[in-house]
Amino acid sequence: MNTAPAHAYPQMTEQATRILEQNTRSGDSGRYTVPTDKLYPFQWNWDSCLTALGFAGFDEPRAWEEIRTLFAHQWENGMVPHIVFHQNSDSYFPGPNVWQTGRSPVATSGISQPPVAASCVRLIYEQSQDRKQARAEIRALLPKLFAYHRWYLTERDPDGTGLAETWHPWETGRDNSAEWEEALFRVSTDNLEPYHRRDTDLVDAAQRPPKKEYDHYLALVQLFRENNYDHQTLRPVLPFRIADVGINAILLRANRDLLWLMQVVEQHENEETVQNWVTLQTEAFEKLWCAEKQAYCSYDLIAEKQIDMVTSGSFLPLFAHAVPKDKLPLLLETMDSLTSHADFLVPSLSPEEPDFDRLRYWRGPVWAIVNFMIAKGLESYGEEDRATRIGTDTATLLKSHGFYEYFDPIDGTGLGGDSFTWTAAMWLYWAQHYA
């Protein structure tokens, strides 16, 4: 990693720190951050975990508190919901009155998000100053992390294939990726309740998913609700079941990191189970390799076919260290080809794909948090030059355009929400070292 001094851009660092502090809220179970004011006024699962990395550099106890607050709302089955509705807000839709999960006293959504928590916990520990406190935090979190991963590899993989299923596009974190379109449009909207979305009141509609997709997102939420969020009754009737390459890569990395954390605090009770998961998941990744695209691609479990699109998720198996030697050169060649069409890496959809849209959410824009994970993966393979290119691109975007939610891969324009928490966190934890 480039080791430019952290104080090289003090105003940027000060602004990023201020964003994390300004986006902090207080709930019954502790402090948490919202991704950005009004557009996302609640606590989001993977946002919080990645944001904790930003806090870790200047307020270590606050980093642990962010993750503790999230896991205080874990479901009994182990699932960690993708949204915790700590406070009422009318600037976001769909809120708790739509989800109706019956969680009390704090409402939550009924789906999850990419399980980055264990990996973030490890990264916080590795740079922690107070190791005694850090180990205490890990001991308290380990049973919860294990339960979360077990939920993914049992309720979301009841057949024991090694590939966890995703049941809603929002669970992937890459909400409107073109990967999901065919499966999403299998979802009936015949009985869709009327609604008024709020995001396009705050952000240009050209940068957000179109209404046609939103109808199907909400129809899926209704289906979850009608089946009381029960996985046994839901799974047979779901028209959307995907083995998402992103979720599965992040989960595999998380299980490797969970094993590492068990060693740190000498808690070995579930070690054999997690090791078996890692072995099974590693073997299962072969199914996600697309020879035609020379990349990893998601899989439609209902249509029983590969979704042959190159997205930023295609490179997340690097983060999991799941790419075998024979496939690594091919995957890197595919990554290098993106530079012919995009000035900034890594676009969320390859510009060579017909559905590429440089402005629209996960149809093309660059996201700092995905860049971070891909770069970390490249480093694990000794690909320092490629990791530096991604880190430098990310730092340039942030320096030139600010802490936006995502960025145009062609000219770098900041898009989506501004003063965005996890983008600021990525500057504090990682990107500033490439500035």
How is the secondary structure organized here?
Layout: H1 10-22, E1 24-27, E2 30-33, E3 43-44, H2 45-56, H3 60-71, E4 83-85, H4 96-99, E5 107-108, H5 117-126, H6 131-154, H7 181-184, H8 199-202, H9 211-226, H10 231-234, E6 242-243, H11 245-265, H12 271-284, E7 289-290, E8 295-296, E9 299-300, E10 305-306, H13 328-337, H14 368-380, H15 384-401, E11 406-407, E12 414-415, H16 421-429
Helix pairs in contact: 1-16, 2-3, 2-5, 2-16, 5-6, 5-11, 6-11, 11-12, 14-15
Task: Give me some keywords for this one.
435 residues, mainly alpha, Glycosyltransferase, 43% helix, 7% strand
Largest sheet report: 3 strands, antiparallel
Domains, number: 1
From the spread of the alpha carbons, the general shape counts as globular
Q: What is the CATH topology classification name?
A: Glycosyltransferase
Describe the structure.
With 435 residues, the protein is mainly α. The protein is built from 16 helices and 12 strands. The chain has one domain (10-434): Glycosyltransferase, CATH 1.50.10.10. Helix content is 43%, strand content 7%. Strand 1 (24-27) and strand 2 (30-33) form a beta hairpin. It is globular and about 55 Å long. Residues 1-6 have low confidence and may be disordered.
